[in-house]
Write a structure and sequence with these properties.
Blueprint: E1 2-4, E2 7-11, E3 16-20, E4 22-23, E5 29-30, E6 37-43, E7 51-57, E8 65-69, H1 71-74, E9 80-89, E10 95-107
Parallel strand pairs: 2-10
Antiparallel strand pairs: 1-2, 3-8, 4-5, 6-7, 6-9, 9-10
Length: 113
Amino acid sequence: MKIKGTNISMTRGDSEAIKVTVKDTLGNTIPLVTGDTISFTVREYMMSTTKVIEKIITEFDDGTALININPQDTNDLRFASYVYDIQLTRGNGTVKTIIPPSQFLITGEVTYD
């Protein structure tokens, strides 16, 4: 996986993980806690109603979220550019998009079944 800014590129069918931490405007880490939810959503294009990948994280280790992408999440996707974002919903109902819509590129592979 390659991450440049907020854009992600990964090989179709690979196992990957994205570690998510939240920081305030001063750069201080704000821990994720019980009751919070991190939503990772990938669509073909911005206004698509179909989610090609969706991961909901509600358990956190040391205040961070780990979004695991498994081979079966991308095995059937075309080699193409998709769009994703990451949203935080706090236990008190506050919603914040912490990664704005960005490129999620699925690249080719030679070794696959």
